[in-house]
Design brief:
With about 150 residues, the chain is mainly alpha-helical. It is about 70% helix and about 10% strand. The protein folds into 2 domains: about 5-110; about 110-153, no CATH class.
């Protein structure tokens, strides 16, 4: 075999080896890229599942917090309502006491069966005698109708 054929065969072998090396390199690079892609996809899926689980846990915690706040608010409303009822009851009792006191005070201004309002002055009638009723200042107590201008009792 002539030398040119040997050189040609060597060059052709070298070219085939280069193409084979290049093909193998691309094959391994593609396998490595596929493996990296699969790992990335698995990692992304795992992170998505973790994020979903965390979101569900956070949502459950928010729901529990909201339920607790609603219960607390309901309890607060009930307490305020009860306090308002107690306050209103106390107000009614105070108003009744004040009304009783006002009636008692008004009764001290009313003329009794032995007293009359004559000429704008309270007159005490005891049997056949008539006397003016004198106030704390030593003056006769003025009156109008059946009511004196100051307490009689």
């Amino acid at each position: 075999m002539p030398l040119s054929w040997k050189i040609g065969a060597a060059v052709a072998g070298l070219v085939v080896a280069v193409f084979a090396w290049n093909g193998l390199s691309q094959y391994f690079a593609a396998r490595q890229a596929d493996e990296i892609t699969r790992d990335s996809a698995r990692t992304a899926m795992r992170e998505a599942q973790q994020a979903k689980a965390q979101a569900q846990q956070y949502q459950a915690q928010l729901a529990a917090d909201l339920k607790q706040q609603r219960e607390d608010l309901s309890n607060t409303y009930q307490q305020v309502d009860e306090q308002a009822r107690q306050y209103q009851a106390a107000q009614v009792i105070r108003a009744n006491r004040q009304q009783q006191e006002d009636l008692r005070v008004q009764a001290t201004y009313r003329l009794d069966g032995n007293q009359q309002c004559e000429g704008g002055i309270v007159i005490n009638h005891s049997g056949s005698s008539f006397t003016q009723v004198i106030g704390n200042d030593g003056q006769p107590i003025p009156c109008k109708g059946d009511t004196a201008a100051e307490p009689l009792r």
